[in-house]
Specification:
By secondary structure, the protein is mostly helical. The protein is globular. The longest helix has about 35 residues. Helix content is about 55%, strand content about 5%. The strands form three sheets. A three-stranded antiparallel β-sheet has the order 1-3-2. The protein has a three-stranded antiparallel β-sheet with strand order 4-6-5. This is SEC-C motif-containing protein. InterPro entries: SEC_C_motif.
């Protein structure tokens, strides 16, 4: 009976997931149709803005900090933006980093358009949201284009000064991304001090905020909250900050500038010796592609930083891999604990549990091996260290002092 219920529930969940995926696909298709409209090149700013919805015009208004325009109807707002975007365009260019500057430069060299097949929708929307460039379809090709008026302004402004500012912005953005990759969350003043130290210059807070705000919208790697700056993977910023504050004697781990610039890249993986050991162990048992390995390592690193119990990580791996034997699971668990104890963690300000273990025994200890359920067909629970069956009323092998059913056996 229970098996039938489980099957019915599973079927219902799969059907719900399929419906959700279909709904998401339909929304994406609708958004694509809205974005990619046929246009003729060259394009005036007024024509580009007339193609936008009122919500899209409002996004430009908000991003450029244009006040007293929120009550205007679409036609009136379009007229105002036609005049105000050129006035603000120098300020817009001064928040760009190298990737967006190069794109603008290519549009200028092409007298307006560049191919947009490999640019994500979110990046297209960000460029449009700042009035930098607009999407369209020309000769059956998706393109991004700059209106004529903005091309003329870029020609006047482009030069050594802008290039210097773009390099500075690029460094600010990459260092911020790298810091948050390892620390998770940082207050504004703490971040400012770190950027000052790393660049050797006093950072203008207002300029820095404007640059990071535009970069957050474009790259979607960091977010702003009441707690300051946070990596987009962070689920509970307050919890991380509370954990960090619980260790006042522990300073932020000191990363080199080069380390932080590497960590700034999207989907960066910190390939530590223990992580490499873990991937080699998996490859001894499974024929996995580089992409599959990277996906699993990214997920495990995220799970560690999101405070997922090792049993949860084992279950995740079980959902991706078929475990051949209990002996293999024992070895897998040991390797996973090594990975856990040597992974840099947000709550530890970029340190690993192993690094802090000796000096901080009363706060933290490397995790012991945890029990593991050998798939759905085997209902026995085992202590990985001894192989003995664990009763639900027995003490939990994780060392918490609680009964198993109240701890890892939930």
């Amino acid at each position: 009976m229970d098996n039938k219920i489980d099957q019915k529930t599973q079927k219902a969940l799969l059907e719900a997931l399929a419906r959700a995926n279909e709904h998401s696909r339909q929304l994406q298709d609708k958004r694509e149709q809205q974005l990619w409209k046929k246009i003729n090149i060259p394009v005036k700013l007024s024509d580009a803005l007339n193609n936008l919805s009122k919500n899209e015009l409002d996004k430009i208004r908000q991003n450029l900090g244009l006040k007293n325009l929120s009550s205007l109807k679409k036609g009136d707002l379009t007229g105002k933006l036609v005049n105000l975007i050129p006035v603000k365009f120098k300020d817009i260019l001064y928040v760009l980093d190298l990737e967006r500057y190069d794109m603008v430069k290519r549009m200028f060299k092409n007298a307006g358009p560049v191919m947009a097949n490999n640019i994500s929708v979110s990046k297209v929307e960000s460029l449009m949201g700042y009035g930098i460039a607009f999407p369209g379809v020309h000769h059956n090709q998706k393109i991004l284009f700059m209106p004529l008026e903005l091309l003329d302004i870029f020609k006047e402004i482009d030069g050594k000064e802008l290039e210097t500012i773009v390099r500075r912005n690029t460094e600010w953005i990459k260092l911020t991304h790298g810091l948050l990759y390892y620390y998770g969350v940082m207050g504004a003043s703490t971040m400012n001090n770190k950027i000052n130290q790393l660049t050797g210059q006093e950072v203008d807070l207002l300029k820095y905020f404007k640059v990071l705000s535009a970069a957050s919208d474009y790259y979607e790697q960091i977010e702003f909250s009441a707690y300051g700056y946070q990596d987009q993977r962070v689920y509970d910023a307050k919890k991380i900050l509370d954990e960090q504050k619980a260790r006042p004697s522990v300073d932020y781990y000191s990363f080199t500038k080069e380390q932080l610039l590497k960590a700034a890249e999207m989907d960066f993986i910190d390939r530590t010796p223990k992580l490499n050991n873990f991937t080699r162990f998996l490859l001894e048992y499974y024929d996995l592609t580089d992409k599959e390995i990277d996906e699993m390592m990214l997920q495990l690193i995220n799970m560690i930083n999101l405070d997922t119990k090792p049993t949860g990580m084992i279950k995740y791996l079980e959902s991706r891999l078929e475990f051949p034997s209990f002996d293999m699971v024992q070895e897998l668990t040991a390797k996973l604990m090594e990975l856990y104890n040597h992974t840099r963690m947000w709550i530890l300000k970029g340190h690993t549990p192993d690094e802090l273990f000796q000096e901080e025994k009363r706060y933290l200890k490397p995790l012991p091996a945890e029990s593991f359920r050998m798939g759905q067909t085997d209902s026995k629970l085992f202590d990985i260290r001894t192989g003995a069956k664990i009763g639900r009323n027995d003490s939990c092998p994780c060392g918490s002092g609680k009964k198993y059913k109240k701890c890892c056996g939930k």
